[in-house]
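Lecture notes, part 5. Sequence design as translation. It can be helpful to think of inverse folding as translation between two languages: the language of shapes and the language of residues. The source text, in structure tokens, appears below.
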């Protein structure tokens, strides 16, 4: 067990975690960031978050010519470390918030103590779990889980694109893609969509919108870049090939909160950490949350960074009020 008590421990290493670390370090809080360990369940979960699967980021301010997602997260980390952030490549497996200071159980068997904790573990996109899907997603081959992040990239413009899903998120992503693509196909395994009628109408009114019902993606085709998808009819079992230059998976996200089981943290109806309005406070004093783990609506790097800033400022003020210097 660590003999010292950290002023603030940050769990997670995406835009929210690194921004919180930058602010906390500059405030002389000597933050410790637990970045997590790479894993597959069923899609890739990497230190650095969802941006590690994004080839080019064009919508983050300050990068007029775009920046590669992994490069961007590396720059965030360098900036945090410049101000004295300590970085540890382990998972937090369990949190005990019932005692002060808090006790955090680490994947290497250690227990560390902290006066405050910022949870910034993000939300993991739900993937189909196909080998070629994962391979092309991790190498920038035209498979993505965020149309708003990647859809406007030049490689997708005036090309046929496909979106897998049938809910409001799929409709929103597909409608967004119709601005750039030659054709946008919704691929849905059932005979009717789950999305709200207004979202369906908004998509179907676009001249380049098409819906393929009763179709499931069996395989993603292409070596370095996606060339198409192999579809299976869920009624007849018939196989077919759809030629597309981009595939966007829109079957939901799962907030990374398994390690918070029995911790006392409150969640909303969708499983995201519940926050008090307009700040980063959770229901447990001294525990804060930032980024996609507490945001099911925007899920953007820039909003996550903003929430990381809020969490660090909230933690700093809370620690001062508690007399922790």
């Amino acid at each position: 067990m660590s003999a010292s008590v950290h002023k603030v421990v940050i769990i997670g290493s995406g835009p929210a975690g690194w921004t919180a670390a930058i602010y906390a370090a500059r405030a002389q809080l000597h933050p410790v960031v637990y970045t997590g360990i790479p894993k597959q369940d069923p899609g890739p979960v990497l230190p650095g978050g969802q941006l590690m699967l994004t080839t080019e980021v064009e919508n983050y301010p300050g990068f007029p010519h775009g920046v590669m997602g992994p490069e961007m997260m590396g720059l965030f980390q360098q900036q945090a470390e410049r101000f004295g952030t300590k970085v540890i490549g382990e998972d937090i497996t369990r949190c005990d918030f019932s005692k002060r200071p808090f006790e955090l159980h680490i994947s290497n068997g250690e227990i560390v103590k902290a006066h405050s904790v910022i949870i910034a573990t993000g939300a993991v996109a739900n993937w189909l779990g196909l080998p070629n899907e994962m391979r092309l997603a991790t190498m920038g081959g035209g498979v993505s889980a965020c149309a708003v992040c990647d859809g406007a990239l030049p490689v997708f413009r005036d090309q046929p694109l496909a979106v897998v899903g049938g809910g409001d998120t799929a409709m929103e992503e597909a409608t967004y893609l119709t601005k750039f693509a030659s054709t946008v196909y919704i691929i849905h395994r059932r005979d009717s969509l789950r999305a709200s009628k207004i979202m369906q109408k908004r998509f179907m009114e676009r001249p380049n919108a098409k819906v393929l019902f009763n179709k499931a993606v069996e395989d993603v085709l292409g070596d370095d870049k996606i060339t198409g998808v192999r579809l299976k009819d869920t009624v007849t079992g018939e196989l077919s090939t759809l030629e597309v230059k981009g595939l966007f998976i829109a079957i939901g996200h799962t907030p990374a909160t398994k390690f918070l089981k029995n911790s006392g943290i409150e969640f909303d109806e969708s499983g995201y950490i519940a926050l008090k309005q307009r700040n980063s406070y959770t229901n447990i004093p001294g525990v804060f949350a930032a980024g996609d783990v507490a945001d099911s609506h925007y899920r953007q790097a820039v909003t996550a960074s903003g929430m990381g800033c809020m969490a660090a400022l909230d933690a700093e003020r809370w620690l001062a009020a508690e007399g922790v210097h």
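The translated text above is only one of many valid answers, since several sequences can fold into similar shapes. The two ends are 22 Å apart (CA to CA).
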